[in-house]
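Hi P.,

Sorry for the delay on this. The queue was packed all week, but I finally got your sequence through. Input first:
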Amino acid sequence: QIAERGRQLLAGSATGIQAAAAVAESCDAFLLQLLEEHFQKLPDEQRQLMQRRTAVVALGGLGRHEMAPYSDVDLIFLYRPAVRGIFGDHVSVFVRDCWDAGMTLGHSIRTLGETLADARSDPHLATALVDARHLWGSESLTEELKRQFARRIVRSRRRAFIEECIASREQERQQHGATVQQLQPDVKRSLGGLRDLHLIRWIGFARFGTKDLSLLQQKGAFSRGEAQRLLEAAEFLLRVRFELHLGANKAQDVLTREEQMRIAEERGIVARPGQRPVERFMQEYFRHTMAVAECTRHFVELYRPVPARQRVRRFLTQRRAANGLLIGSTDIDLARPSRRREPFGLEEALDVYRLAALHRVQLSPRLERFIKSCAADWPDDASPAARKVFLEMLAVPGKLGTLLRSMYATGVLERVLPEIRHARCLLQFNQYHSYTVDEHTLRAIEEVERLGREDGPVGTAYRDIRHKEILHLALLLHDLGKGYQRDHCDVGRDLAEQAATRFGLSDQQRKRLVFLVHRHLAMAHLEFRRDTTESQVLLEFAREVGSPETLRMLFVLTAADFSAVGPGVWTRWKEDVLGGLYEKAMLILSGQHPQHLQQKLLAEVADQVKAAIVPLQAEDREGSERPSTEFIERQLQSFSPYYLTTTPPARIAADLDIIHRLRRGEIVVEGKYDPQTHTVDYRILMDGQYAEGCFHRIAGALTAKRLGIISAAINTTTQGIVVDVFRVVDKDFAGPCPESRIQEVAAAIRRVLTKEITVKELFQQHKRFAPEESAPPISDQPTKVGVDNDASDRCTVIDVFAHDRPGLLYTIARTIFRLGLSVELAKISTHFDQVVDVFYVTDARHGGKVQDEARLDTIRQELERRITEFEQTRHVEFV
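Then the structure:
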């Protein structure tokens, strides 16, 4: 009934704050009725004793009249020692009745002394007591608790209390999202959520003696604008929390992607060009949480007590600067904050930031608030002099990421770079990015500074860049084309052209900035979707980049872009892979021929393989024939450069040993479990007898055995030897995959390759459950098939973008086979629920690339048709 009342109020004209208060009142009424019914059953003398010596006190949300429909009800059953035993018995019965009625209680039974003692050591209890409110029983006992709590726990140990509140909140933030723009936030506990508003109340109570935002504004703790933004945010967040609870019919505070879409639809939010309804809803959500996070940060930093020793040290280390500023060891501040002063203009504010960059300090919260208060009177666009100061600041790394965040919060950044206004709190509703566009952009700057301090190839490249301001400006612009109807790289190119004109860049700087923004994905796409061992591919990439300086910037930008996507996206493996491309392209741009580089690499690999194969020969059984030098040379020459440069020499040596022992018609299947990635690598080696169609048959066998294929490397030598590697996840085993399972899968692979059994028959044998509906994909990206006849000298390249589902790779591979194509090389990768599969194919009849334009169109259309059919209906066969 309480939840239903909240639903009716929210469906009517009530605000979120009004609905929360009404739910709290309903809880009050229910609890009081239950209490009265319970204690009315007692004898008069005992009932009067309870009313004089005990009290029921509401805490937390119930205490401040702010309850969501399914929130826990926090109570303290307070009593005098004289009624300890009898009161505890009654409370137990009352609590049981509450649970029977469906109310979730968080309660404790304590004396006044026990409550105060526990509050001193338990910050969660202490913060809950800030909102203590009398509910039933002895009101004087409740008032005594509130007085004693304020005097003994808060005022007498104010600094300790505030620090405990801050530490407790910080721990909660780390657990539930330490960034505002977390794409599936906890409305209550994530940064900028309702709990930050509670933190303001707790500190306000300790510092100013009041929890009310209006009274805090009157006392000068907030400006009128800040107080208004906090009230609007509280209303918005409370309403969202209500909608989450009512949608789930239980306590639910995480705003999942599914809930985001549901709420956006229920609110009737309309799409805009380039922006879906859910993205508009979340943009509004993040605007409110950003305001809460910013106000909370300033409030905490301004009003947390500073120890006397720290104040003295700060005073001794400060030095005066122009414009009435003081520069300390960690920040820059106003010299006389209490004195009224003329507002800063935009150029003066930028001078402050440039000064902070040069001294590698940040702005104090007081100075940030002052600059923000001045920003309302500034023109929308910056003067040439202001832009010049901004570029000078961008050239100085060290504190750049921190200062740009501050500029973004105060409104300075969008005056000098108006393109960023569109990206404020802009959500891209996909599974790849973990943050909003603006948060990703600012993180990219922070990541480039972090990477620049490392000793690896990225750090070395960053330190070698002469004009870092161009790189940093490109990072600020690289994703600002998102949220429009056109491709964000093309929009970004136009934005970069406009910015270059406004900043008065030279023609060379303009071209470099526009290239970096427009082609910021080029390096990643080339390395992860193309065979970069082909000299023509490398040469064209190097020709497009044009200069070593631009290559350094593109390499560093790519690394920073990956790092800023989300935790764990930039890995050592990606650094090594992209670093290899960077080094090869740098050699070309430095004047060395790419063929020389490739031959050098291949010669080094050959030497390492020969060295590694000696121990293998020593382990041969006595009397067995050993591979000759001529055999090794011949086999190495028959492998593709891709295989030789991406396979460890020791593994190549092991493959050569297997090939040397391989008998006609023999199929060798090896399986190896990797405990670090919890995956199994299946390596298949055979001669050409079973090579035709082997790719789709192996993929089908693995799918039939309920294995998820996450990557594949398909290699066929010029002598017809097949060396295929599939990395899979075996969902039937939570831990290590047993050897019996590996042998079972290996046997299945051999059976389908020798055509002892078809994939369909194998699938039917191992399908243990009836088909069930699988979860719809999160991403709304359409299926796309690209056919490129220019990326390789020898092969036609097919790129497939689709939703990842069991059986997809088998369907694609079988379709390619039926189209009369032979797969020479495959690069299979999965990003969340999206696959990006690249196939290097040749015409199965004559072995070269497909030249006929009509046939190329047929290949693309047939693959798109088959994948679309698979996604719409046939994928359930593989669930």
